[in-house]
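Standup notes
- HV: blocked on the assembly model, inputs below
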Amino acid sequence: MTGAADGATRWALLVEYDGTPFVGWQRQATGVSVQSVLEQAASRLVNDAAVAVTAAGRTDAGVHAAGQVAHLDLPTGLIESRGLTPKRLRDALNFHMRPHPIAVVAAAMVPPDWSARFSANRRRYLYRILNRPARPALERSRVWHVKPPLDPLPMREAAAMLVGRHDFTSFRATACQAKSPLRTLDRLELVVAGGLIEIHAEARSFLHHQVRNMVGTLKLVGEGRWQPGQVATALAALDRAAAGPTAPADGLFLMEVGYAQDPFAETGLSLP
Amino acid sequence: MTGAADGATRWALLVEYDGTPFVGWQRQATGVSVQSVLEQAASRLVNDAAVAVTAAGRTDAGVHAAGQVAHLDLPTGLIESRGLTPKRLRDALNFHMRPHPIAVVAAAMVPPDWSARFSANRRRYLYRILNRPARPALERSRVWHVKPPLDPLPMREAAAMLVGRHDFTSFRATACQAKSPLRTLDRLELVVAGGLIEIHAEARSFLHHQVRNMVGTLKLVGEGRWQPGQVATALAALDRAAAGPTAPADGLFLMEVGYAQDPFAETGLSLP
């Protein structure tokens, strides 16, 4: 939670990526991460010096982002010596990240103590289930393919039981590093269109795997293997083993991160 | 326009595909086509005998389909001897087409003189433009990336001039084999959401490259390089050179083919 050093300017980035080829947001011992591609592109702007990039949400391997937010610090001198502007930073990072499926959609100058992660007060995720017998062709690696027909009505009933302030221990990865399992889930809503079931989840913050564990449990309800009330029982058990399995990463998208003040308001966001 | 032979049953298929890896719908001397993958999968059901598959719209290389329709003839004996049903045909074709990004979403038995191509009375296409400086990450190969800001208002004005019954010679590929250049364009509508411009086109049938040539011309209007009225002038010129360039295949999707009677009505379409 450190601010930018003297002589450095902090920049916020709005980032979109296809998670399929990556080991996740975070740097790993092996494999290519979204963070490492962004950091290597940024280091090209400072004679290959190391640059750290911090994200609002450290998405897992295979998870996609339409609206990830990150920040990084660059020498303030670049603004005068190299004419660095938000648009030029966006274009330079995109140039150096080719051909990875990562795009900086917008960049903005932010105060030195602003943090993409700790200043965020809202995260919105979308989970997409393709519910039909035929496998996905157009949406391959962007949906969870579930063949047996799911009934959205009991799924909605069960989802409503998870909304609110709860101890989400039953829906938290065992590796989760958050200090408290208490979270306030503001929205968990199903939208059904054709064979696609879209599940929208919103909260100030989520526990590790929380969305995927909730979706994996709702799927049991949709199949009729669980009654909706069993989800409330699983929540009350405060035991990961009491809830359903983790839904695959493919269907999960980080859609939006919210802040008290939108850092990209002046850039017109993704609008050209 | 031949019907099914004696002893053969005609089947309709609802087909979805990602056009990126294919040379197009139609068989070519080299490269993999959607038609050849489907035909090879079908031939596995008849001891590797040749099976011909006919589509409603012969999409070009790189063009996608969410709702292509095709038909094929199979020995009627398979229904009794192998218990062939619409669902089993769908599943068998999908099994044999793996791992190609093609999916038979539904299959249905149709009358022997029914044709996916000649019985069709409506085609709906969607063309997607991603209009922002940053290249697509999530929608790579599924949009036309246009960096300069497009103004949708004059584009809508120009699109309205193309709707109706016209000689579309100016928007027709020189290789187009249709006997008449007369077509009735029922809908050419822009829907703008964020950086995405979606252009919906509907007609009984289209000329070769007609949608892509119309989109390539509308883009000139959106950039301000053409006034909307120049599109009407280009249409009246009856000269391909008078209209704008062909928009790339990546952004084009065949969404739906219409028939007097929906062959998939009883299957519940893409619903499981």
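- HV (later): unblocked. The interface with chain A takes residues 16-18, 64, 66, 87, 90-91, 94, 101-106, 131-138, 140, 142, 147-149, 194-195, 269-272 of chain B (CB under 8 Å). The mean pLDDT of chain B is 95.
- Next: hand off to the docking folks.
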